[in-house]
Every structure is written in structure tokens, then in C-alpha cells.
Amino acid sequence: MSLSILCVDDQRFMLTLLRSLIQAKGHQVEVASSSVKALEYLQTSHIDILICDIGLDEEKDGLALLDQIRSMPCHAGLAIIILSRHDEIDVVQRAVALGADEYILKPVAPKRLMAALDRWSGLADTGVPWDSLSRDQAGLMRMTLGTVGHAFVQAHQGQPVSFAKTRAHALAVVRAGDDQAIAEALSALKNHDGRTYLHCMKMGAYLGLLGHLMDQPQERVLDLITAGLLHDIGYARIPLSVLSRPERTPAETAWLLKAHIEQTRTIVAAMDPAPPADIAEAMIHHHERLDGRGPLGVPGAKLTETARLAIVVNEFLVHRDLRRPDLIRRSDREIMETLRRDAGLDQAVVTLLDRIVGAGVGLSPSGP
Q1: Shared-domain flag, residues 75 and 178
Q2: Which of 60, 95, 123 is the last residue of a domain?
Q3: Which of 101, 251, 258, 340 has the lowest tally of Cβ within 10 angstroms?
Q4: Residue 85 CA, distance from chain mean position
């Protein structure tokens, strides 16, 4: 995916270096040598990511520019990466508090910069209505999307994925149960077949809402949300050429289903510290059925309550987001009727989900 990136630095050699590094990765790069020129460019052009030096002109340094941009609702979804020679903790904390998504020390290591671009590229086409969110709400959304996106990048590159770190940054999804603006923003997330973490955001949000409805303690709700955020992490290790094929035979579909489950199992097994056992099982068993006819053939008696929650939510989202070629667009009400007739699902969980969908809570727009 080609991104539009604006680099702001008062040193010409640094702008030349950044342009060379980023263009080599296929991205479009514009440069600005001052905060004034950066603001002028932002007023007239679309930017996916801003890379800004902390020490700019006397009129406005990088932190002041960051603060001004974050006060503009039209740029609430803009990922901002700060470059700096300052490693003092108070400077880093101030940058983060003002809305920096990443803080990279100079001299810039190319691999570190490329990893940051990968981490934040997921914000470019999420469909989130950023201008409807407050500054704090937008910050929570960027943090959570970036964290989950980073987990998928790590998995794709064969690196360990941290359940604990993902859990610690699931703040926007936690607040979806109480904050309608964030809930509506989550509902606007588009599907992204190459990196299905946007589907995972929805999964995490619904599991969180179920946890709230079941009066689970917040620590438990966080576990449920994180299981949803990472339940399809195995897809990150499936070649994009396979995922993006428009048509598959039933045999190919069955293989893909099992392949991503086994990859998820491998990733979960390597997590240190390990997630709670039932949470790990939910991440692996979310395609199973009570009649034992799931891809792994796990009988219903061996499926934990947490897995049953994940199975029902996943089935709802599969229908809602048309994640199978045999499905057609239907209202949420019609989908819930299908789930109520499905003997392979835990109907007690279906009833709970129906309360969320029927009430128009969280991520479910009203059906016709």
C-alpha cells in the first residue's frame, strides 16, 4: 500500500535522507523545512503520515506544531512520528501527551523508521470518522489501531506477539461500552483482507460488550477484548497472494481456515507471558461448533464459555461483513434470526448478543 508522507525538518540533508529511505519503499514523499510550510501543505493536501523533527524554527518547534495539528479535527486520524535527539523522559512524555504516535531518536535507524511506517499505515484507510471524535477519543483510537496493526506486522515477520502489550493498549475498545462516539467510530471500520486486524477490532469490541453485559470485572473484559483483537492473528502468516484470491474452491477454503488456526496456535503458544488458558482456547477455537463439526472437530462439551462467546460473535461478523463468498448482504436482524436457528451455536450466547444488536448498542447500526 502506497502512503502519502510529509517529512518536516529544518536540515536539508535530513529531508534528503528521509525522502530516499521512504521512496525506496514505494511511498509518496513531500518535504517541508518549517512548521509554516508544513501547515500550508496540510491545508491543501491529503497526508497519511507526518514525520516531524522536534527542533524546527524559532516560531514553532515540532512539539508546538504537533499540538496545533492535534487541535484540528480534520487531522485527528493523521499518524504523527516525532524525530528527536532528546532522550529525556520529560520530553518524550510531553510529545506522547500532545498526541505523538511514535518517538524515534536521531540518528534514525532505517529499520526502526520502516517499522514505524508499517505500524501506522493501517490508519490510512480505516473509514473511521475522525472528525467526529474529540482529541482524547481520537488518540485512543489511534493507539489501539496502531497496537493491533503492529501485532499483525510482528506476526507477519515471524516475530513474537505480546498478548500483554496488546491488552495494555486496548483502551478504545474498553471505552466503546460507555462512549457512543468511540462505538460509532469502531462501527465505521472497513474490512481489510490483507490485514484482517480491522475485523479483529470489531471482534474485540463485541466481546467487550458481552463482557460488560455479563457484569464481568474490567480485568476480565480486557482479556476478552484482547482475545478478539488477536483471534485472527494467524492470517498474518498466510501469503497475501493467497488471501487476496477472489475465488477459492471449497477445498482451498477449508485449507485456509485450518492454516490460519494452526498459525494462530503457534503464535499463542509463543506468547510470554501466556494469556489465560480459556482466552488462548477462544483464540484458537472461534470457528468450532457445539455439534463438533468445526474445522478442528472439538466437541461442544470441551468448548469453554469464553470460546462459545467467540464462536457466536465470529459467526455474526462473518455474516455481517460478508467474509464468505456464499453470503449476501442482510440486516443485523436477519442475521440474528439465522443465528437463532443454528444448533451449532450456544443459544444462551446468541440471546446475549441479540440484546446488544437489538438495542443498537456499540457496533450495530439499525437494520432495515
Answers
A1: no
A2: 123
A3: 251
A4: 30
Residue 368 domain flag: no
pLDDT tens profile 312-349 = 999 999 888 766 666 677 888 999 999 999 999 999 99
CATH number of the domain encompassing residue 298:
1.10.3210.10
Q: Give CA angle at 10 (108, 45), nearest 5°.
A: 95
Helix (H, G, I), strand (E, B) or coil at 31: strand
Residue with more model confidence, 234 or 242? 234
Alpha-carbon distance of 302 to 307, in angstroms, equals: 10
Q: Where are the alpha helices (DSSP H) in the chain?
A: 12-23, 35-44, 62-70, 89-98, 110-120, 135-156, 163-168, 171-175, 180-187, 197-213, 218-230, 240-243, 250-269, 277-284, 305-320, 332-340, 347-358
Give the alpha-carbon dihedral of 105, 106, 107, 111, to 10 degrees.
Answer: 40
How would residue 365 be classed by pLDDT, with cut points 50, 70 and 90? very low
Domain that holds residue 279: 133-358
Determine, yes or no, domain membership for 147: yes
The candidate with the shortest Cα–Cα distance to 36, out of 55, 8, 70, 11, is 8
Look up residue 316 and give its amino acid.
F
Among the three residues 123, 151, 185, which one is the final residue of a domain in this structure?
123
Instruction: Supply 86's cell numbers.
Output: 532528546
